Amino acid sequence: MQVQVVEVGPRDGLQNEKEMIPTEGKIRLIERLVEAGLQRVEASSFVNPRWIPQLADAAEVCRALPQLPGVRYSALVPNLKGLERARECGLTEVAVFMSASETHNLKNINKTIAETFPVLRETTREALALGMRVRGYVSTVFGCPYEGEVSLDSSRRVTEELVAMGVYEVSIGDTIGVATPRQVHEVFAALVKDVTTERLAGHFHDTRGTGLANVAAALEEGIRTFDSSIGGLGGCPYAPGAAGNISTEDLVYLLHGMGYQTGIDLVKLTEAGAYMQELLGRPLPSKVLQAALAQKG
């Protein structure tokens, strides 16, 4: 059985890094990820560089992406201006984003949830008119750093709105890594009834060590697409303590061990993780990466 892995390291993974990563390093990382067999890569973000300086080189990175059959690249866009920049770079897919919790949405987008819908609706409509694919992200589904618990009704409402706009897939995010498998079962069981398993993805953080357990729970609910970040890089600038996207190496190891197919070469993937670790000059959290490096001595 096939599971899709969406690599978000070049965007979600790097956006929290304080040390500026050279553009050439980002491009080489993406090349290595694609060489390892990843077919869906979120390359960067076209948000205002003042908010996320690390991704100010989005245009340069996206123009240099290796064009290979079957490989799809995307970038995060907040509005029509971001969409225009992404389109100019030749991208054929973008992602729009918002939160299920009001306070996080205000911190992240500077708008209420109600104010965000028309902006994303306009952006999505224009992207679809241009023949582009649009993915949607919903943050803080399993908990908010400012409000605590987030109602399932709010997550359902935002997800349904995004689907109605025309996004082909909604990534359901545990932005601060508080979810447990029971909660994952509850949330996805409800969302699957509203949408379908084919249009939902899981986006988990391993902040509290439950990331892969949550993937296993989502798999049991029929979810077959998961976001992950090379080496376990990442976190949200507007969610204190949210470090730790699940590692792509750890995710692929788990999936292969459970009998799922990903089309990804784990050896080449760990080499990409080792490259990223070398680029940053510090160990990365991925357990599979660290085990592979230890075996090499």
TrEMBL record:
CDD domains: DRE_TIM_HMGL (cd07938). Residues 3-270 form the Pyruvate carboxyltransferase domain. It comes from the Bacteria. InterPro entries: Aldolase_TIM, HMGL, PYR_CT. GO terms for molecular function: hydroxymethylglutaryl-CoA lyase activity; metal ion binding. Belongs to the HMG-CoA lyase family. This is Hydroxymethylglutaryl-CoA lyase. It comes from Brevibacillus composti.
